[in-house]
Design goal:
The protein is mainly alpha-helical and 421 residues long. It contains 18 helices and 10 strands. The strands form 4 sheets. The protein has a 3-stranded antiparallel beta sheet. The two termini are 24 Å apart. The C terminus is likely disordered.
Length: 421
């Protein structure tokens, strides 16, 4: 973490996002590209974009109101994914994809996208084989894709959506038209005086595709981890969270800011523990040793491919005792000490660009969901929450809940003291 070890190129050579800096193995190429986006994803930028994120959260909660009226179960696995896709697309373009418009969170695109993500691990772990297959697969008739390779349809649909938006933004910038600012403006309109590099349009599209893929499933997974575990075996801790929220969230029509919510100790502990058990990318992430190195008394020659795993760090029992269990209270006791050991967003120059965006939407969503709705698990067990490694974790089942609205006229508790974030 934070070293000069390049990524292992064959592992990250993904045809579906070819050209994206996210998968660029060479640090010398990666860092200048990443720097063009840094100012768009820093904490100040996310704070400015917070009203857009809050709009998506409010729309998600409005969709939940339907289930309070019918009494039917809500599929939060689908709901959270619809929410996170709309958040990341509205943040990028100031215009959401519209996944939350689907009835019962049943977005056809997201169903196909799930199929695509679920097969991602195969080209990652068998890169040479799938590099040869990918071109042939793309040339197959559409009816073959629809019947047996639905993930390819989703990948093409996502690419086309991002390509249309990027070309429109580039056209506005080229014509010096007045247009809404997006996170791609600096990349598409580089400043030579600042030594900005010129990026091909196709590579910017690949960046956009990577942002949607990385910024939706991961955050949705973390929300599922949080809600399931609170409802399944941490009802006492949930009571503390709800009491804390009643002290600061008083109006259903107003969103409490992120910087207020992250100071609430029990809510913050919930977010941190959920992230720890979400891992980001849990599998082995290979790097190339740049020069001869001695590790634990063993000489590792330059050019050797080694790997590390977020899962191994986050589940280290010497740092996180009883690591398989959801124990948010551990962050109440030793939060600052534990923080440096959790690597769900990675570390160093490769740290997740969207970390601040993820934190903002996690706090806004969990705070207002848990404050205004009483949830109960519906035919959802631990077996449903088991996951497999598809480069990102994919749950085997769905999180379903029944929903009851908490009346807005409920008397708010006295505001609780908050800690500094």
């Amino acid at each position: 973490m934070g070293t000069k070890y390049d990524k292992h190129a064959p592992f990250y050579a993904q045809p579906a996002v070819a050209g994206s800096f996210v998968f660029d193995a060479d640090r010398k190429k990666y860092i200048p590209r990443k720097m063009l986006y840094d100012q768009e994803f820093n904490r100040d930028a996310i704070r400015r974009a917070e009203p857009r994120i809050a709009l998506c959260v409010a729309k998600f909660l409005q969709k939940l109101d339907r289930y309070t009226q019918t009494g039917g179960p809500a599929n939060l696995s689908d709901g959270f994914l619809c929410l996170t896709v709309d958040v990341v697309t509205r943040f990028m373009y100031q215009e959401s994809y519209g996944a939350l418009d689907a009835d019962d969170f049943n977005s056809e695109f997201l169903i196909l996208e799930h199929d695509f993500v679920s097969m991602m691990q195969w080209p990652l772990y068998l890169p040479r084989t799938f590099a040869l297959l990918f071109t042939s697969i793309e040339r197959l008739p559409v009816w073959v894709h629809k019947r047996w390779l639905r993930g390819v349809i989703a990948q093409k649909g996502l690419w086309n959506m991002c390509e249309n938006r990027i070309k429109y933004i580039h056209s506005c910038l080229a014509k010096q038209q007045e247009c809404t600012r997006t996170v791609f403006d600096t990349t598409l309109n580089p400043d030579p005086e600042k030594q900005h590099s010129v990026t091909p349009i196709k590579h910017v599209v690949a960046d956009a595709v990577s942002f949607v893929m990385a910024g939706s499933d991961t955050s949705a997974f973390t929300l599922k981890v949080a809600v399931f575990n609170l409802l399944y075996n941490k009802l006492d801790f949930l009571d503390h969270v709800k009491r804390e929220l009643r002290g600061v969230v008083h109006d259903q029509d107003k969103t409490v800011p992120w910087d207020v919510l992250e100071r609430l100790p029990y809510l913050r502990a919930t977010v941190k523990e959920s992230l720890r058990l979400s891992h980001g990318a849990p599998g082995r992430l290979p790097r190339v040793v740049p020069k001869d190195t001695v590790l634990c008394g063993t000489l590792i020659k330059a050019g050797t491919v080694i790997s590390s795993s977020n899962y191994v760090h986050n589940m280290n029992p010497s740092v996180f005792p009883d690591p398989e269990r959801f124990l948010p209270e551990r962050w109440l006791e030793n939060g600052p000490q534990l923080e440096k050991y959790m690597v769900s967003f990675s570390r160093g120059s490769r740290i997740c660009l969207g970390m601040n965006l993820a934190y903002c939407e996690l706090y806004l969503t969990l705070a207002h969901l848990l404050r205004w709705y009483d949830l109960q698990l519906y035919k959802t067990t631990e077996a449903d929450m088991e996951w497999k490694d598809s480069f990102i974790p994919m749950m085997k089942g769905s999180l379903r809940v029944t929903v009851k609205k908490i009346p807005s006229y409920a008397t708010p508790e006295k505001s609780l003291p908050t800690e500094k974030a």
